[in-house]
Amino acid sequence: MGSFEVRAEAGSVVDVFSRDTAPVLTVEAGDVVTVESLDSSGFLRRQEVPGEQQPTLFAERRGHCLTGPIAVRGAKPGMVLAVHFEELTPAGWGWTATAGKDDWLMRRLRVDDAERTWLLWELDGETGTDQHGHTVRLAPFLGVVGMPPEEPGEHSTIPPRPEGGGNIDCRELVAGSTLYLPVTVPDAMLLLGDGHARQGDGEVGGTAIECGMTTRVRLDLVVDRPVPGIHAETPSGLVTFGFDTDLNEATATALSAMVDWLQIEQALDRGAALALASATVDLRITQIANQTWGVHAVLPTGVLG
């Protein structure tokens, strides 16, 4: 098993998904990679006051500032890439911004014509404190973990996608979690970034505590998983996902995959698996900020004796 490191710098950072981007690193299945990522905007220096527009790595950013791509030798469509999150360490500062844009949610919340509002967070590894004195316990994870679509060309980093992943924004994916992503292109071409020091389910204002992150992952290839689509094993439980422009469809996709999982794990027929899910499974809104609804179903650890 090899161990590698990728820094966030010009030449190893992109702001779109593309199968045609050359990899910055090629690894074998089972290798460990420590990945440095800047915050989603790619700030090169910390803000000294909330909202200060410091220089960014991309003069005209098109999407999230992501590190990679990392190629996994031998990966091909039909396989599943297992991303084991071994350690996630936030940078020493972060930011949250909301309002300042005109979309259906900001209009509904009556902040569409308000100036963009910023929180500036001091992060000490365990807690974060904003300029108003609010303190929260950190639970770091990466918002974007994914592979490019199989179609050639450049693709936005903003919406999550049902196979390759991307901007999933699920706060369950903390250290100790494994995210399973159906491989979309040869060699996987994985991108990582959009560090979040903490986020609530939904990412309701459009951003979390955005921060730089140092992430250690182990990358494996598997071919026999109990459920299709994107799913995860986390310290809090088993997780299945649904992504769609229709909230009902996203919900049904996440729940259907969890019922599949219960059928297999508990040796039940489908009706009995759904009945068991009704007593044990939590449905959560993953995020509402990314043009595509995200829903995840959670079977909590220890809920079944």
Automatic annotation (TrEMBL):
Superkingdom field: Bacteria
Record Pfam families: FmdA_AmdA (PF03069)
InterPro entries: FmdA_AmdA
Protein name: Acetamidase/formamidase family protein
Organism expressing this protein natively: Saccharopolyspora endophytica
